[in-house]
Specification:
Helices cover about 80% and strands about 0% of the residues. With about 150 residues, it is mainly α.
Length: about 150
């Protein structure tokens, strides 16, 4: 898969409703706190040692949810694809295996399932399903991009 194919698939994701975007926005700070607590307890993997030493994971959850909040408010498939590819490239350039990223994304969706209304979860989950299912493509594409 290439960037264009990713973009075509991202265009199939429906933007969340204004109600869902507002719910996510209203809950973003508490979601960030819960995600940090759960991942701090859960990730005792060697990958998490790198993350904790660099401070990347702790701040990235905050920035990630802020970015998703904006995306849910004004969905742009192009921005979504390009930012996701940039993130994959940055994680890998710092020595992270993207399996670590998959663990984080799956944990986030588990938290969303319990903290968001079923309607909001149903509208937001496709964004995370897309990221999780395309991790091999992010690796392939970023391996073939010039730095």
């Amino acid at each position: 898969m290439d960037r264009q194919a990713l973009l075509d698939s991202a265009r199939k994701i429906m933007a969340p409703s204004p109600e869902t975007a507002k719910e996510f926005s209203d809950k973003r700070v508490i979601l960030t706190r819960i995600i940090k607590q759960v991942l701090d307890a859960k990730l005792s993997l060697p990958e998490s040692d790198k993350a904790q030493k660099s401070g990347m994971d702790r701040n990235d959850h905050t920035y990630h949810l802020m970015h998703m909040e904006g995306l849910f408010t004004a969905y742009s498939p192009e921005e979504y694809v390009d930012t996701t590819l940039w993130t994959a490239r940055m994680y890998r350039s710092h020595g992270f295996n993207l399996n670590h990223w998959e663990t984080i994304l799956k944990t986030i969706t588990d938290i969303f399932k319990t903290e968001l209304t079923p309607k909001a979860y149903g509208e937001i989950y496709p964004f995370y399903e897309w990221m999780i299912s395309n991790i091999p493509d992010f690796i392939s594409i970023t391996d073939n991009q010039a730095p």
